[in-house]
């Protein structure tokens, strides 16, 4: 029965509900955006909390009546309805209300609000452009999402638990005092005004310093993740001391911010202790002075209520301080994560329909927002089924050309079309679904080998995955894999970024992924650079079969891998310097011929005078 109730209560918030529009940049509107859909449950929790808080004062009121009854002549049994009501309050109503309050906090609100906020922040962040992620630490962004979701959840719970409960206690106490003597209400009101003034003076400082502390904490996380993600480079360059200095620097900054936050909260709590202690002294003293119009039961009720309110004041104030700190962390996360998308689908974007695979770069310019770098004035048409190789020194614009085709960035000038369709007028997903890609730096998910290959086509059968792996010369080594958990073969997890595999093995997994995807346009960005000559030769035939019928763009420094392509273009400082077949370009005795002559082992730019990217 209880399990059924908990299950039903836990499903009242749809944690996967889509957010409406982008996240706002102001705190109050951001909170409304993040919690949309959860408000009915939050209000229900607040109502239960108000009801539970009212029982605090009601119990003191009944205590006063019992004291007065005890002082009257006659038998206490004459007041059995009073005792029965008090028993019902303490044994039935209070347990039900506080049990319901616990249910709303731990089952209905806690896990669901966190998932709701986290889902919305994750969805917004993952749709950001590549440049957004280029300009920040991955660990810092992850920390900001978790921090904002967790802090907003704690804010809601503390608000429902402490603020509404405290509000009910204050209002109930005011009603109790008003029933005894209006002068007591004025004393409570004067105290409450002073209490609010104290909060207004201190909370902005706490919130501001909490946001600074949260930012410093995220920087620590980002620095540590950055170091660990590049641990091989750290080891190879004996960079432990350098990384130690940088990490300790971020930790020192966090400590400084945490100390400033601690200073603010300590002074806040000390002041509250004094303010809370003032209330029962003032109310009980006034009640004694007004003893001619106040009964012993009234004094007992006033004393109990004022002491309880003083205790709750400390608890409520601590909760307000915690909430203020959490809001600072939410605001810090909001400032980072609610940045508007700089690359979006057009409102009327359609689906890319590739019928031939013709690609046209029409006077394309893109310089990453600067005056130089990238590409400029590129006018290039790639025929359906043509195999085009792109050659150039580092920094010539090869990767930029491919990134624009994938629409990882929007062009600054010019139009890029596929089969006559402007890539800016179709959805990003439909564009990238029509393009297969194998890059020099292949990333692996921390998932099974099967899942890593199947990423190319999620609906592929296991046998189709196996066949793609065979064609990529990956099947045999995959069968020999075993991870730390004992999973073997295609079920073995490859580890974060595939670090348990060699570079060549990772590249063959990526090649199998592209083979499985079987898209009409294929991009090979140094696709075989990490393979030894024997393995490269063994899969070259398979790669030739994969390229059949597709429009192919291949970037390579090792010219021997692209000499048989239909056409080769040479980029130099962002412009097309030469174009033609391998033999034609050699005959021109230009850049391509110089690259060919300078190669040592087949690499461009071995000459020290070549430009570095």
TrEMBL record:
Keywords: ATP-binding, Membrane, Nucleotide-binding, Transmembrane, Transmembrane helix. It is a multi-pass membrane protein. Residues 43-325 form the ABC transmembrane type-1 domain. Its main location: membrane. GO terms for molecular function: ABC-type transporter activity; ATP binding; ATP hydrolysis activity; ATPase-coupled lipid transmembrane transporter activity. It is found in: Cell membrane. Pfam families: ABC_membrane, ABC_tran. InterPro entries: AAA+_ATPase, ABC1_TM_dom, ABC1_TM_sf, ABC_transporter-like_ATP-bd, ABC_transporter-like_CS, P-loop_NTPase, Type_1_exporter. GO terms for cellular component: plasma membrane. Gene3D superfamilies: ABC transporter type 1, transmembrane domain (1.20.1560.10), P-loop containing nucleotide triphosphate hydrolases (3.40.50.300). Part of an ABC transporter complex. Transmembrane domains (TMD) form a pore in the inner membrane and the ATP-binding domain (NBD) is responsible for energy generation. This is ATP-binding cassette subfamily B protein. It comes from Sagittula marina. The lineage of its organism: Bacteria, Pseudomonadati, Pseudomonadota, Alphaproteobacteria, Rhodobacterales.
């Amino acid at each position: 029965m209880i399990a059924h109730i908990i299950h039903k209560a836990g499903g009242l918030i749809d944690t996967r509900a889509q957010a409406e529009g982008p996240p706002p940049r102001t705190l109050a509107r951001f909170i409304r955006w993040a919690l949309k859909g959860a408000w009915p449950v939050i209000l229900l929790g607040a109502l239960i909390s108000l009801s539970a808080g009212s029982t605090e004062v009601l119990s003191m009121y009944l205590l006063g009546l019992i004291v007065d009854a005890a002082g009257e002549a006659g038998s206490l049994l004459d007041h059995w309805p009073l005792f029965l009501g008090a028993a019902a309050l303490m044994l039935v109503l209070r347990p039900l209300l506080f049990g319901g309050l616990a249910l709303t906090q731990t089952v209905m609100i806690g896990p669901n609000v966190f998932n709701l906020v986290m889902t919305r922040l994750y969805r917004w962040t993952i749709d950001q452009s590549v440049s957004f992620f280029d300009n920040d630490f991955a660990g810092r962004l992850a920390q900001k999402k978790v921090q904002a979701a967790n802090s907003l959840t704690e804010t809601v719970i503390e608000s429902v638990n402490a603020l509404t409960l405290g509000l009910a206690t204050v209002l109930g106490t005011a009603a109790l005092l008003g029933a005894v003597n209006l002068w007591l209400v004025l004393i409570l009101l004067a105290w409450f005004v002073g209490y609010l003034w104290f909060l207004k003076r201190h909370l902005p400082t706490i919130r501001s310093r909490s946001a600074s502390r949260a930012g410093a904490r995220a920087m620590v996380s980002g620095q540590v993740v950055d170091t660990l993600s590049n641990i091989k480079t750290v080891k190879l360059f004996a960079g432990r001391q350098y990384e130690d200095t940088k990490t300790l620097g971020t930790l020192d900054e966090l400590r400084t911010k945490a100390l400033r936050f601690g200073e603010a909260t300590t002074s806040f709590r000390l002041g509250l202790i004094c303010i809370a202690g003032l209330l029962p002294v003032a109310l009980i003293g006034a009640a004694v002075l007004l003893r001619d119009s106040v009964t012993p039961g009234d004094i007992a009720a006033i004393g109990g209520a004022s002491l309880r309110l003083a205790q709750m004041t400390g608890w409520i104030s601590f909760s307000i301080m915690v909430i203020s700190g959490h809001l600072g962390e939410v605001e810090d996360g909001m400032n980072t994560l609610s940045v508007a998308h700089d690359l979006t689908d057009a409102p009327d974007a359609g689906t890319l329909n590739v019928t031939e695979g013709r690609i046209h770069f029409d006077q394309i310019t893109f310089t990453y927002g600067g005056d130089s770098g990238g590409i400029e004035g590129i006018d290039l048409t790639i025929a359906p089924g043509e195999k085009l190789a792109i050659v150039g020194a580092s920094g010539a614009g090869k990767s930029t050309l491919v990134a624009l085709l994938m629409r990882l960035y929007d062009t600054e000038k010019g139009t890029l079309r596929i089969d006559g369709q402007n890539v800016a007028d179709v959805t990003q997903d439909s564009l990238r679904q029509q393009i297969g890609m194998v890059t020099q730096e292949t990333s692996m998910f921390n998932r099974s080998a099967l899942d890593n290959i199947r990423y190319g086509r999620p609906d592929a059968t296991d046998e189709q995955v196996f066949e793609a792996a065979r064609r990529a010369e990956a099947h045999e080594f995959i069968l020999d894999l075993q991870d730390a958990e004992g999973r073997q073969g295609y079920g073995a997890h490859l580890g974060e970024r595939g670090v348990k595999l060699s570079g060549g093995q990772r590249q063959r997994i990526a090649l199998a992924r592209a083979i499985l995807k079987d898209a009409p346009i294929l991009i090979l960005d140094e696709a075989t650079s990490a393979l030894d000559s024997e393995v490269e030769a063994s899969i070259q035939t398979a790669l030739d079969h994969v390229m059949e019928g597709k429009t192919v763009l291949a970037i390579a420094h090792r010219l021997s891998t692209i000499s048989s392509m239909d056409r080769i273009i040479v980029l130099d400082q962002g412009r097309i310097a030469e174009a033609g077949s391998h033999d034609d370009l050699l005959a021109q005795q230009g850049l391509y011929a110089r690259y060919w002559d300078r190669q040592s082992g087949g690499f461009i730019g071995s000459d020290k005078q070549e430009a570095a990217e």
